C-alpha cells in the first residue's frame, strides 16, 4: 500500500496543516475496536500505469466525493487538485493526502477553478449540477468533463473510474488482485467454518445485517460463514422475538453516529445481550461503520479485509 503516515509526535493522524483527522479509541462498550490505531496514511495504493496508447491525466477535479475511493485505490490521489463539494465531504479513512485537497464547494469561483487547472473533471449524475457550476465559471479551458455511471455494485463503479482515467487494464488488475487475496485469506483461515454476525446500531434501531451491505459483500468474497438468519439480503431490526438472531461464533458491531453509539452502549449492557454466546465468550468486536457500511470502494475493501483477518485470527485464538 502506497503512502507513508502523516502524524504528529502525539501519534494523532493529522493533515499537512496540522488538523486532526482521527483520534484513537480502543473500546465501544465492552467490545474492542478492530484496528483502532489504523494508519489512514497508508490507505491509498501505489500509482497505476495509464493504458497503452492513451493520454495520462495529471490534474483532476472531482464533483462527487464517492469517486475518491477509486482514485485512491488507483494511486491517483496526488492528481486530485480539488473537490467540488462542501468542506468535510472527504471520508477520513482516505487519509491526509486527500483530506488536504481543497474543497471548493457547490458553486466554485473562476479563481478556484483556475487554481486547480484540471485536465479532467469527474462527475456523476447525482452531482451534475456541480459540474455545470464548474463549466459556468469559464475557467475549465480544455479540461475533459466525464460523467461516471455509478452502480450499486462497487466493483463496477471502480472500473468505471478506472476507464475514465484511462486505466482500464490497471483497474481490472487491481480488482483481480483483491479478489485473489480475499479468497486466499478465506482459504488459509478456514473462513467458512466461522460464523460471523453483523450488528449495526443506528440512532433508531439495532439492525441485524444481511448479505447486501458493503462489509457483508467483502465477507462473502472471503467466504466467511454467516448465521442462518443472516443469509438473506436485507437487514432486519432486532426485536425481543428475534434477538438471538444476532448471535454467532463472533459478532462484529458498529455504530452510526452519536445516536448509534448511545444505542449500542445501552443494548450491549443488557442481560439479554450479555447472555448470548458470543458476548459470554468475549467474542464481540467493533468495526468502523463508515468503512463497512457507507463508503464502498476498493480502498475501503482492503481495510475491511484487514479487519476480517484480525477478527478471524482473534476468533481462532479463542477456541
UniProtKB/TrEMBL annotation:
BP terms from Gene Ontology: iron coordination entity transport
InterPro entries: ABC_transptr_periplasmic_BD (IPR002491), Bact_iron-sidero_bind (IPR051313)
Keywords: Signal, Transport
Pfam families hit by this protein: Peripla_BP_2
Tagged with keyword Zinc-finger: no
Compartments where found: Cell envelope
A GO cellular component annotation in the UniProt record: outer membrane-bounded periplasmic space
Primary location group: other
Top-rank lineage group of the source organism: Bacteria
Residue span(s) of domain Fe/B12 periplasmic-binding: 59-316
UniProt xrefs under PROSITE patterns: FE_B12_PBP (PS50983)
Family of this protein: Belongs to the bacterial solute-binding protein 8 family.
Name of the featured protein: Fe3+-citrate ABC transporter substrate-binding protein
Species of origin: Gordonia spumicola
Amino acid at each position: 500500500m502506497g503512502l507513508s503516515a502523516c502524524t504528529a509526535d502525539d501519534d494523532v493522524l493529522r493533515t499537512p496543516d496540522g488538523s486532526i483527522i482521527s483520534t484513537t479509541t480502543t473500546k465501544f462498550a465492552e467490545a474492542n475496536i478492530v484496528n483502532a490505531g489504523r494508519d489512514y496514511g497508508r490507505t491509498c495504493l501505489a500509482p497505476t500505469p495509464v493504458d497503452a496508447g492513451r493520454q495520462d491525466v495529471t490534474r483532476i477535479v472531482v464533483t462527487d466525493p464517492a469517486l475518491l475511493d477509486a482514485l485512491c485505490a488507483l494511486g491517483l490521489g496526488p492528481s486530485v487538485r480539488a473537490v467540488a463539494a462542501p468542506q468535510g465531504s472527504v471520508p477520513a479513512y482516505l487519509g491526509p493526502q486527500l483530506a488536504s485537497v481543497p474543497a471548493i464547494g457547490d458553486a466554485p469561483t473562476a479563481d478556484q477553478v483556475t487554481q486547480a487547472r484540471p485536465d479532467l473533471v469527474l462527475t456523476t449524475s447525482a452531482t451534475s449540477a456541480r459540474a455545470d457550476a464548474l463549466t459556468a465559471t469559464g475557467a475549465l479551458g480544455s479540461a475533459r468533463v466525464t460523467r461516471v455511471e455509478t452502480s450499486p455494485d462497487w466493483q463496477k463503479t471502480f472500473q468505471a473510474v478506472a476507464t475514465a482515467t484511462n486505466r482500464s487494464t490497471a483497474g481490472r488488475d487491481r480488482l483481480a488482485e483483491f479478489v485473489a487475496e480475499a479468497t486466499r485469506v478465506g482459504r488459509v483461515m478456514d473462513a467458512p467454518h466461522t460464523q460471523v454476525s453483523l450488528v449495526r446500531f443506528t440512532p433508531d434501531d439495532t439492525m441485524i445485517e444481511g448479505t447486501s451491505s458493503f462489509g457483508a459483500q467483502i465477507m462473502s468474497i472471503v467466504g466467511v460463514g454467516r448465521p442462518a438468519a443472516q443469509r438473506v439480503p436485507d437487514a432486519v431490526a432486532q426485536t425481543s422475538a428475534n434477538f438471538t438472531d444476532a448471535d454467532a461464533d463472533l459478532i462484529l458491531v458498529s455504530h452510526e453516529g452519536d445516536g448509534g453509539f448511545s444505542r449500542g452502549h445501552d443494548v450491549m449492557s443488557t442481560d439479554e445481550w450479555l447472555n448470548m454466546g458470543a458476548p459470554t465468550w468475549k467474542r464481540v468486536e467493533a468495526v468502523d461503520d463508515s468503512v463497512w457500511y457507507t463508503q464502498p470502494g476498493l480502498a475501503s475493501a482492503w481495510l475491511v479485509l484487514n479487519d476480517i483477518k484480525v477478527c478471524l485470527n482473534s476468533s481462532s485464538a479463542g477456541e
